[in-house]
Write a structure and sequence with these properties.
By secondary structure, the chain is of the alpha/beta class. The protein folds into two domains: 431 residues, Alpha-Beta Barrel (7-stranded beta/alpha barrel), CATH 3.20.110; 118 residues, Up-down Bundle (immunoglobulin/albumin-binding domain-like). 45% of the residues lie in helices and 8% in strands. Strands 1, 2, 3, 4, 10 and 11 form a six-stranded parallel sheet that branches. A three-stranded mixed sheet has the order 7-9-8, with helices on one face. Strand 1, helix 1 and strand 2 form a beta-alpha-beta unit. The N and C termini lie far apart (62 Å). About 4% of the residues have low confidence.
């Protein structure tokens, strides 16, 4: 009898809020350019190298529609090429400025960065700047699986109207098909934020206080077949959190709902569960984030990224934005950081990749079931941006996995295609945020945001049915929908909660709220028989700035239970 194998699924979730045409530095399009230069291009380089070496690397790669729209936008290419040119110029300037100073020993690192930047620019040129096209090619070659997420990465459990959740998911499905040429079977639910069916309201003044549909019901209606939950949401572990290291402290570990006596949990994180009801249009499965493997990678405090050999993220030479130092020690002050050694860091990444492969082998050796799966989800931006050596780690990991007994690397879709989800479970509310609850997005610092969102939800869905059938009003409604969706991004409350660039997040939130109010007022005016000229002019002006989701009105009609034919 052949040896039973345990599947390993690495899922990378890529997301940035809409920043094009909303500033450049320090907050704005440079975020997007930085992510492309430090994460997306190095990831593509790694996947191409593994492909050339005929090494299987079945990554499940998620890109939010709002990110994918930006990567496909002509403005991004212009911004990115200028950004790389600025970084290359900074290398030359730094080399000249460091000469004859006590930091002269850092000059070889300017050459390291110049060589790397030149290589990334050459890859960009070889791709014609079409990052999405390369991801499409890799999927067509069966080298990876592409999945999507809510359109603007809204924190779905806190939205006041089920139509708003439906719009986020239906638009995501439509945009993924438009940009990648095929449907996504999987959907990354933003922040792993889950809410079950039932009577629930975050506050007394929130709308929709009756019975609310579970997130899995919305996923089924949109045609998605799987998503990922944190272990405690499936009653399969305690919440780890995922953002503790980035907000000035470690995540607090708390007991999960449903914990059994003796420290055991009623469910295992090493299987996929059926979570959809018998009447769902499609069967929806939940994959569970594995605590043991996840903490080794994401945690700067307890995991690999905090190793002293790795590039220090927080110490940057200005002007220019170059990093010349290593972590040195987890508790070292920035002034005590030693110069970076690229070769030592590369060897450390290789050692950590083999250690991680060994850990996966240990977990696989402990599993007896033939349907076991180790699901390891991470933010894509961890690999290369937060953890510079992350792409090298991935390359060495996939090279090592064929030598691990009983372990098979697959995409999430491959695992579910091979193994029917015969075991069902009821999920509990939660997220992968700190403490495993909603508090990163709903707390004293950001509670004032939510009544604004709920008010605009009511206003939008109040006028949408009539506006869809009205040619003049529908053109304005389309841009109102874009502002309405951008307002809902989970990034704004998250950034305010963490205290990072709070002013930018508040300005963006308030700006999109103002735009949505003005546009919806214009829609109401047209429906009441008024002129559309001023409203159309405002919509056109905002479209030049917030230029995404060309088929948004079709998704609005679908969210209302209609079809494209309902759009005027």
């Amino acid at each position: 009898m052949p040896e039973r194998q345990v599947d390993f699924v690495l899922l990378l979730h890529s997301h940035l809020p809409y920043v094009l045409h909303h500033g450049r530095w320090p907050h704005g399009s440079d975020w997007l350019c930085e992510a492309a230069l430090e994460t997306y291009l190095p990831l593509i380089e790694t996947l191409r190298q593994l492909e050339a070496g005929e090494v299987a690397a079945p990554v499940t790669l998620g890109l939010t529609p709002v990110l994918a729209n930006q990567l496909a936008h002509p403005t991004f290419a212009v911004e990115f090429e200028a950004f790389v040119a600025q970084r290359l110029a900074a290398c030359d300037a730094a080399a000249a400025e460091l000469a004859g100073t006590p930091d002269e020993a850092l000059i070889p690192l300017t050459r390291f960065w110049s060589t790397r930047l030149t290589r990334m620019r050459a890859l960009w040129d070889a791709l014609g700047g079409d990052l999405l096209g390369e991801f499409r090619r890799l999927q067509a070659a069966e080298r990876l699986e592409l999945v999507t997420s809510a359109a603007t990465h809204a924190f779905l459990p806190l939205l006041g109207r089920d139509e708003s959740i439906a719009l986020q998911l239906l638009l995501a499905k439509r945009e993924h098909r438009r940009l990648f040429g095929r449907d996504a079977e999987g959907c990354w639910v933003p922040e792993c934020g889950y809410r079950p069916r039932g009577r629930w309201s975050p506050r007394a003044d929130a709308p929709g206080a009756g019975v609310r549909r579970g997130i899995e019901e919305h996923l089924a209606d949109a045609g998605f077949r799987y998503f990922v939950v944190d272990a405690h949401t499936a009653r399969a572990g305690a919440p780890l959190g995922v953002y503790g290291d980035r907000i000035g402290g470690e995540a607090t570990h708390v007991a999960a709902p449903g914990r059994e006596r003796g420290g055991r949990f009623p469910q295992s994180p090493y299987r996929a569960y059926r979570v959809s009801g018998a009447r769902a249009p499609v069967e929806v499965a939940a994959l569970v984030r594995d605590p043991r493997s996840s903490v080794r990678v994401w945690s700067r405090g307890d995991g690999y990224p905090g190793d002293g050999a790795y590039l220090e993220f927080h110490k940057i030479r200005w002007p220019g934005g170059l990093r010349f130092w290593r972590v040195t020690a987890r508790d070292a002050d920035l002034g005590d950081k030693a110069p970076y050694d690229p070769l030592a860091a590369r060897l450390t990444a290789r050692a950590h990749a083999h250690d991680f492969a060994e850990l996966l082998g240990d977990i696989a050796g402990e599993r007896s079931g033939s349907t076991s799966v180790i699901t390891a989800p991470f933010d894509t931006e961890l690999f290369g941006h937060w953890w510079f050596e992350g792409p090298d780690f991935l390359a060495d990991l996939y090279a090592a996995l064929p030598g691990v007994p009983r372990l098979r690397a697959v995409t999430a879709g491959e695992h579910l295609a091979r193994h029917a989800t015969r075991v069902s479970t009821k999920l509990v509310r939660g997220s992968w945020g700190r403490d495993g609850d909603y508090s990163m997005w709903f707390n004293e610092r950001v509670q004032a945001m939510w009544p604004v969102i709920w008010e605009l939800e009511e206003a939008f869905w109040d006028v949408a049915p009539a506006a869809l059938a009205h040619p003049q009003a529908s053109a304005i409604l389309a841009q109102a929908a874009r502002s309405f969706l951008l307002l809902q991004s989970s990034d704004w409350p998250f950034i305010v909660t963490t205290g990072a660039v709070e002013d930018y997040a508040l300005a963006r939130f308030e700006g999109h709220a103002r735009d949505a109010r003005l546009l919806l007022a214009a829609v109401r005016g047209v429906l009441d028989g008024g002129e559309a000229t001023a409203g159309r002019a405002l919509a056109d002006e905002l479209r030049r700035r917030d230029d995404l989701f060309p088929d948004v009105l079709v998704a609005v009609a679908e969210a209302l239970g209609g079809s494209a034919a309902a759009v005027g």
